[in-house]
Amino acid sequence: MTVQDLRDVLRERAEGPSPANPHRHDEVRARIRRTRLRRRAVAGGVVSVVSVVAAVVVTVALLPGTAEEPVATTVTAEPAPGLPERYTAPDGTVYRRLAATRLVAAGVKTSVTVPVTGNPLDVAARCDGEMSAPPRILVNGRNTGPRGFAPCPKDMDLRPLIVPADAKEVTVTFDRSTSGGGCVMRTKNGPCEPVKPQRSDWDLAVYEWVPPARMILPEPVRAMPERLDGKKMLAQFRGVWPGQSTFEMQVVGTGDPVGIDQICSGALAGRMWFTYQVGGQESPTRSGCGIWKEGPFPTAMQEFTVPKGKRVTVTGRVGLWGESTNRPVNWAIGVYRR
C-alpha cells in the first residue's frame, strides 16, 4: 500500500459515522500511551517511532558561565494518540480532526500542514507530565495572535487558529524550542540556580468545525458581585457578543481607584477580550474573560486612577479571538470603587 492509498483509506474512515462507543478509542489510546511511557522508561528514554515522522534538530543554549559547549539534540515527534478524531463541544458544535502530532521533549518543534476550506480551525492540546511552558503556535512561521495553551493542560485545551484570508492550506508549527537560559534564587541573597527542564509530553492537533445552522444561545451569565476586592459596585453592564460590544458611563473621582472586572458564559467564553479607557487612560493590555459557574469569583480586576472631583468617561470594548458564527457569548462587566 502506498502512502497515498493509506491517506485515502484514512480519509474515508474519518468521513464515516462515529462508532457506537466513541469513548472506546480514547480508552484504547490511553492504554497505548501508558504502555509506551513504560517502555521508554525501561529503554532509557529511547523513543519508538510508530509512523513516518520528521526529526527535528535543536540546539540547547546553556547559561552563561557553564563549562560545556551547546549540545545538538535530535528528537522525534509522534502522532498524538490522546486527542479524539471527532469532538462535540458543550453547545453541540462538532469538531473533526485534520492532523495530529506529539512532542515528547522540551526544546523541540514539529509542524503539520492542513487544508483551509473556509470553515473555522482550532488547535488543541493535552499534556502528560509536570507543569511546563506550552508550545508556541505558528501559522506559516508567524505568531497567530491569540494567547497560547495553558501550562500542561490535563484536559483538551482548544484555541482558535487564525489563518490568512486567501489561504488554501497552512503549515501549523508547535514550537517548544527556547533560546538563552534562566535561574532562580530560592533564598534571599542565595545563589541563582539554573532552572531544570521539566518533563512533559504534549498531544497536539488541528481541528475543523462547522458553524451551527442556527444560533445556539449560551446559558445566562451570573450577576456581578455587589462588592469585590473591598470595592462597591458603581454600575453593571450586560450584553451578548457579537450584538453588543461596547459600553460607556460617567464617573466622578473621589481619589480612590476605579476597578473594572468581567465574566462570560458560552462555549467560546474563554476567547473573549476586553479593553477599557477611563478619562483617556487606556488599559495597557487586553483582558480575558472569567467563567464563573461556582466557587469564588474569578477576579482579574483592572484599576484606573481618577483625580478627586474630576468627572471622567469610562468606556469599554468587547471582542473575540477567532470565528464565532452562530455561537454567541453572554458577557457582564462591573465597575467598582471604594
From TrEMBL:
<keyword id="KW-0812">Transmembrane</keyword>
<keyword id="KW-1133">Transmembrane helix</keyword>
<feature type="region of interest" description="Disordered">
    <location>
        <begin position="1"/>
        <end position="26"/>
    </location>
</feature>
<feature type="transmembrane region" description="Helical">
    <location>
        <begin position="41"/>
        <end position="63"/>
    </location>
</feature>
<feature type="compositionally biased region" description="Basic and acidic residues">
    <location>
        <begin position="1"/>
        <end position="15"/>
    </location>
</feature>
<protein>
    <submittedName>
        <fullName>Uncharacterized protein</fullName>
    </submittedName>
</protein>
<keyword id="KW-0472">Membrane</keyword>
